[in-house]
Each structure stands twice: as structure tokens, then as C-alpha cells.
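hiii, so i know i said id send this last week but things got crazy w the move. better late than never?? heres the sequnce for the chain we talked about at the cafe, plus the structure i predicted for it. fair warning i was half asleep when i ran it
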Amino acid sequence: MGTLRVISGSAKGIRLKTVPGKSTRPITDLVKESLFNILGNEVLDIQILDLFGGTGAVGIEALSRGAAAATFLETNWQAVRIIQQNLEATHLSDKAVVVHQDAFKFLSSPQPESFDLIYIAPPQYKAMWQKAMLLLDQNPKLLSDNGQIIVQINPLEWVDEHYVHFNEFDRRKYGDTLLVFFEKSQPSKDITN
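okay and structure toks below
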């Protein structure tokens, strides 16, 4: 694993600290660059929820590229401190909130706002992404109407699931990383004359 850095935007080139050990799932620069090439200008002025914050790399990249705000959730105190240090190093702290809380508890509680992008990259092989998606399906107001959910997992973890409120609309594989994109299901229109 090479050094983690911000690829583009206001914090371009700044190196990010990583969390020691295997409690987080770092994103490679290749995957991160591909992800943000797909998102393009869609990151401008959006609200992001980074459910398993880790190093904060994805949310920080989005903020660097013009996202309005990011909320990072993380249960590991060490990771919380690393995200805060990375936000300070990139001068993006004023656009971010770092919450030391379990992602599932957050998803199960009513929240005052909705998010335009919800990023799910939990620790590997624990079926945590499925639990997060099921909780979001029970609380779909967390995602704005035109928002998207992106799941980052190892392809071996993928299981076809069907959700009431979300449809998969894209899937990209980069080596041992799979990105799966979901959007809100469109309500079926009743066609009557």
C-alpha cells in the first residue's frame, strides 16, 4: 500500500495519515481516482455521509473537489483522531463533522438531514455493507431524492440483494475492489387513460 494522498482540488497532493492495523479498509489512489472520474461535477456542493470513515480519504477527496460538507462516522477512536488530523492537514475541518458513533446506530436513528452521497466501505468480510444497506432501506429519507449510495467491497463479498427503495445502477471492478452504485427507486407510475 503506497502513501495515501489527495488527488485533486484545493488539497491536491497533501498526504493523509493512515490508521495502523486492519480495522479500516483504505482505498487505493487508482480506485479513488476512478470513483471521482465517474462522479465528476456531481460532487460539487453535495452533502456526504462517510459511514465507516477510516482515514477519511473519500470524504476529504470530495471536499477537496468542492463538496459542501461531509459527515464522517467512525467507532474506532484512533481512526477518529486520524480523520481529524487529515482534515486539519487539508484545511477542510470547517466543512466536516467527525462523529464517534457506530454506523448502524446512526442509521437506525432519525437524522435531521438527508445526504446526497452515502459512502459505505466497512471492514471486510463481516457482511456489514449488507446490514448498512438494509438499515438505509428502512430509513430511505437519509438519502436525498437525487442522491446515490456507493458501496466499496471486495468482489468476494458481493451478494445480490433486492431493496424496496434503492436500485443498483452501476458496478465497477478494480482488481480486488468492487464499487456498486445505488439510487432511489422511481415510484412506478400508474398509467391509466
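btw Residues 77-89 form the longest helix (13 residues). thought thatd interest u
miss u guys!!
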